[in-house]
Amino acid sequence: MKRTLACGFAAVALFCSMQTSLLAQYKPLAFTEYDLPNGLHVILHEDHSAPVVATVLHYKVGSRDEDPARTGFAHFFEHLMFESTDKIERSTIDKMVNGAGGELNAFTSNDQTVYHFVLPSNQVRLGLWIEAQRMRKLQVNSIGVETQRGVVKEERKNRYDNAPYGGWLEKAQKALFTGTPYEWAPIGSAQHIDSATIAEFKAFYDQFYQPNNAILVVSGDFDDKLVRETIEAYFGGYPMAPEPKRPVIGALPPLAGEIRETVNDPKAQLPAIFMAYRSMPQTDEDVYAADLITTIMSNGESSRMYQSLVDSTQLAVQASMSLFPREYIGMAFCIGIVAPGKDAGAVEKGIDAEIDRLMAGGVTEAELTKAKNITEMNFVQGRMGVYQKALALSDSYRFDGKTEAINEEMTKYMKVTTDDIKRVAQKMFGSKQRVVLTYLPSKG
């Protein structure tokens, strides 16, 4: 017993010392920012601790900006931007960046499409040149489009159509957000991508891939004067474009009660429960309490849902709660993967019992403190790389309306009280307006 206690105290001491060490390393991010005459917003953050630099180019276009009859365009361009430009041959962007010792990637969401390079410091001009080429000199032609049609359709098959439980997110979004451009997932419809013409793709590119619809961040070990001159030389010649037309996203009417569906899934090995609720947008101050709620409920083996559904009752092999924030409308969801021989209905009741306990009794100060400590450690670890810092800077400018918000985030988490947790839990879950999807294995 003494040895067990000693190990426990040692683990706590180690956690605290690691956290103190991480916090000691973290300092508020210093940055400069300015606009080019064509509207491109530039953010520069110098970090000379390692000879590495990251560029992030954040385009203010996501799946919510698409025509409902042409979904998947934003995600399609995430792929097409790695094809050719006027001065870059097909299939050479990866080779140039990898050959220079760097790495590259991109992602699409409902609200944004983001591209990044991480390169040795002496290759920063390469990353900026490629991004400038792609911004206005992409070749939207039949070779690239037909190649990427196949790639995107294959991705959809692998991630959605042929994956266990693959359609649950699309079903949940469609039910929760019908009538808004958040009702479809960024992957979009294979049929829409198949039937789209080159002219339609070009129109989308010309509308959204413009300097005044983008945020460029350079983070890392670079010379300020060189980078500013390079940005001006590569991007400054592009004219400002008309402001893109965007859908108006207003208040959603209440759901007509609970929406339920049972799905027979031949790819599933175990039954599963998916519960989805509307939540606040990511700009709402309550999002910090909501995020802490998900940490308390399902972060680690000591979390509430793991303890009640996986450990003690062994009803589920996985039980979690997550927050999916977006600029205008958010979603909170719970997932329960049913244990072999157990009942999906019992897992649903177990999740509901934990949500009811949260709304009725809130959380303890100890639980909240622990969640804040976990959040603080994740925050610091997520601000150590030059790419992570560049991405956080672009997000702060875009979604919070000011880049300075990057240095205010942890303060907002620390201000959350147990009363806030209870109030926000009731706000998200109290109305029982939700989608409940029950997936059952089947033979097809």
What is the element layout, followed by pairings?
Elements: H1 2-25, E1 32-35, E2 41-46, E3 52-59, H2 73-80, H3 93-99, E4 103-108, E5 113-120, H4 124-137, H5 142-161, H6 168-176, H7 190-195, H8 198-208, E6 214-220, H9 224-235, E7 259-265, E8 272-279, H10 287-298, H11 304-312, E9 316-324, E10 330-338, H12 344-361, H13 365-381, H14 386-400, H15 409-414, H16 418-429, E11 434-441
Parallel strand pairs: 2-6, 7-11
Antiparallel strand pairs: 1-2, 3-5, 3-6, 4-5, 8-10, 8-11, 9-10
Helix pairs in contact: 1-13, 2-5, 4-9, 10-13, 10-16, 11-12, 12-16
| Residue share in helix | 40-55%
Mean pLDDT: 93
CATH architect. name of the largest domain: 2-Layer Sandwich
Distance between the termini: 53 Å
CATH fold name of the largest domain? Cytochrome Bc1 Complex, Chain A, domain 1
Query: Which structural class should the secondary elements be placed in?
Result: alpha+beta
Q: Could you tell me the radius of gyration in angstroms?
A: 24 Å
The major sheet is characterized as: 6 strands, mixed
SSE pattern, N- to C-terminal: HEEEHHEEHHHHHEHEEHHEEHHHHHE
State the main characteristics:
16 helices; single chain; 444 residues; five-stranded mixed β-sheet; Cytochrome Bc1 Complex, Chain A, domain 1; alpha+beta; globular
